[in-house]
Specification:
- There is one protein chain.
- Helix content is about 45%, strand content about 10%.
- Helix 8 runs antiparallel to helix 9 and helix 10 crosses helix 11.
- The chain has one domain: Alpha-Beta Barrel (TIM Barrel).
- The chain is α/β, with parallel strands linked by helices.
- The strands form two sheets. Strands 3-4-5-6 form a four-stranded parallel sheet. Strands 2-1-7 form a three-stranded parallel sheet.
Length: about 300
């Protein structure tokens, strides 16, 4: 059955959460960042992603982020908050709050930090959340973060009435292609991996949940527009360039850390990640220069 929506496609930004020097949510910076992304013509906002450090936030903080993002987006583009939690009860609470504040849908990881969960337990988790909200739900698979889900389980989930899509985070293109073949007649299948964004589109994916679109939204919008305009060759070349330029930097300094520092370099005060950070120490001035060069290599114009 599923629940087809027309907006789950294109550049879906796994939104960062800006923090101030006391590691508190920086509401002003978050609102400014939302405007920046919308001006750059991204398609969907996904707050409370792993990139957004949802796992370092309390329930009240997560609700605060939801309400800020929905309010600031103000209907200009869809907002799909993450409602990930340790328990089904907590995910339902977050889903109902997202519905109350006017979100367009929700995204849901399997319960994390609980290995392994049987397929039936995972199915019931999604089924219970599905039945507790009127909002469309996107499934989020990420084997590096939580329980992964086999395609036969995703097939069952796609039959639930509110399931609208899946973030299939894998670099295994056979798995992604099988996901498209089995699921795309009922729900939207998108990638969660920048390295294979264009290949995923060629296999029938509708878009990508991209954390790095926080720092270089114009780059990813260009890639997507090239592909949609039929220029596969140039889209692939840019995708390969991204992998070559960005991946080594992210591996050195951390994913969210690199994104926030890149935005700081671009003149936006996004602060640092909440502790613990990937490196465990602050990024040095020399390391900041490497991130600056990364942005320049991607064609981003920096204000001196």
């Amino acid at each position: 059955m599923g629940r087809k929506v027309d907006w789950l496609k294109g550049i879906i930004v796994s939104l960062i959460t800006p923090f101030d020097q006391n590691e508190e949510i920086n509401e002003q910076a978050l609102r400014m960042h939302i405007d920046f992304l919308i001006e750059k013509k991204i398609n969907v906002l996904f707050p409370l992603s792993t990139t957004g450090e949802f796992f370092k936030q309390s329930m009240q903080e997560r609700k605060k982020v939801m309400s800020i993002v929905v309010d600031q987006a103000n209907g200009r583009i869809p907002v799909m908050p993450g409602c990930h939690a340790f328990s089904t009860k907590m995910s339902i609470e977050l889903a109902k709050y997202a519905e109350d504040v006017g979100a367009d849908g929700i995204c849901l990881l399997p319960p994390y930090g609980m290995f392994p969960l049987a397929d039936e337990a995972l199915y019931n988790h999604y089924k219970d959340v599905n039945e507790a909200t009127e909002l469309p739900v996107s499934v989020y698979t990420e084997q590096n973060v939580t329980n992964d889900m086999p395609l036969d389980l995703l097939n069952r989930l796609a039959d639930l009435p509110n399931i609208m899509g899946v973030k299939l985070s894998t670099t295994d293109m056979e798995r992604f292609q099988l996901g498209v073949l089995n699921l795309s007649n009922r729900i939207a299948v998108c990638t969660g991996m920048e390295q294979v964004f264009v290949p995923a589109l060629t296999f029938g994916g509708l878009g990508g949940y991209l954390g790095t679109a926080n720092m270089v939204p114009e780059f990813w919008v260009k890639v997507y527009d090239l592909f949609m305009g039929g220029n596969l060759r140039d889209a692939l070349e840019l995708n390969k360039k991204f992998t070559f330029v960005v991946t080594p930097v992210v591996l050195k300094y951390g994913f969210s850390e690199t994104i926030k520092e890149a935005l700081n370099i671009r003149g936006m005060n996004m602060g640092q990640t909440r502790r613990p950070s990937t490196k465990g120490v602050m990024i040095t001035p020399k390391e900041k220069e490497e991130i600056r060069k990364m942005l320049l290599d991607l064609g981003i114009t920096l204000i001196e």
